[in-house]
Amino acid sequence: MVTLERIVQRTPFEKIAGQTVMGYVNEVKNFSELEKIVLDNALSGVIIGRKALSGLKNPGYLLKELAASYRRALGFSLIIAAEHEGKGLEGLHPPLTELPSQMGVSATGEVKSAYMTGYVTALELRTLSINTNLAPVANLYSPGMGENCFGDEPDEVSGYVVSYIRGLRNGGVLSFVKYFPGRLEKHGGEAEDLNGLLRRDFKPFQQAFKSGVEGVVIGHSSLPAAGDVDTPSSLSPKVVERIVKREMGFKNLLVTDYLDDKQVSENFDLEEAAVKALKAGNHIVVPSRRMEKTQEVLNIILEKAKEDRSLYEKIRSSALEVLSFKLRKFEKFKKTPEKTRGSIINRTKAWKIFIRSITLVKGVEELPLRWLGKPLVVVTGKFEEQLGESGRSALEEVLRGELGGFNLLERFEEISSKKLGEIYRSTPSNTLLLALVYNTQENRRELSMLKKLVEFFRESIVVSLGAPEDLSQLSSAKICVAAFTPSLTAVKAALKVLKGKFKPAGKTPIKIGL
After folding, report:
1. What is the pLDDT of residue 91?
2. For residue 329, how far is the Cα from the chain centroid?
3. How far is CA 141 from the centre of its chain?
């Protein structure tokens, strides 16, 4: 039996120190080279990015082999992590299961939806030999945050966070909740006070900690309530040691967000930031989204540890905690069969959540939907980006199945004012307009054009596929629908509800002015 004592006895400090660094895999040109970097440096783990997944021919098999090689060489497990907060397993080819975003989950009003989403996510991640999910987001909603949070009410968000974590755990995958402390909104001044933060903004994190969540990702937003106005939280001992560990009592792993983010890199070199983050009390640092930079940072950390005894001791202590964690948590991990990913059972469970999440914000009395002629469908630029080329073809299939014939206004954000005028003149004003929108507030020109279209067409429907902030800008539409997830399944579910196949049952998890 492998014990911590035996590992420490046979492992040199250079390998022990590697347990305090995690690499991000953005792209894999040569898998053997990736394996060599991970093993030679004894990195604690790797985060597998979207591009890496799409570039691997058989990611489940290759990652399983990487994990086995690591265990044979070092005697303990490799953390293989993903950042999967909902939607599809990005970067993978079908079959796979599209899942609602976190906001889509909470729109059902049922915490069991969060459990089921976490559970299905875990089963699908395990087909890839991924044993850790850097999710869920436990922050309360703030403007511009998008659909990757559960809402703006602390008690409700706490319930969904804990349920999602439980689903992941029962599905066989560990959860690292994120991002502490997050971007904090003022609530009558209370948010500037630590006690107020603990009662409100930090409550979901506290509940996650009590539930035994395996890790927390420390973000870079400063926390004035801790007495550090200008220091990124990931580099602040006052945040990491005093608040997270002592005040909130968190006992498991603390991992930094990427240290090459602008909030850190504007004021600190990457190597300096990594050392500060370790001294602040984080167990693992994620230096960069580039694996070669991660290797460079680890080498510099080792050099500095030779000169700085306190850093040496800090690294050793954190590394031993990481190793102890691995021995406790990863011994029973097993990859699930490939056929689990995108199975009928998983897709059926996800579909039910999608249907329950669809929210009629305006125009429920207009259902079921009826129309004459071919509807005019507009797809905004951000949603087109999400879909990609293959996704656009699949969207047309969904629209054809639900609407029959239709006219699709492609590349909407690129349409000239002259072309828009031609559309007004050639299309009857009683034509049904269906606008599939996502994050339109980021493109003022596109939003302005959409407003004109919605005002021109009397029969207009706006379906928001992200956080429903879009709907407050397009409230003159006859029907406003919140679907919360930029995916084909969300579009299909919204159209089914509009046609009266299912009753609209969702609720908006955030306050919007309409």
Report:
1. 58
2. 23
3. 14
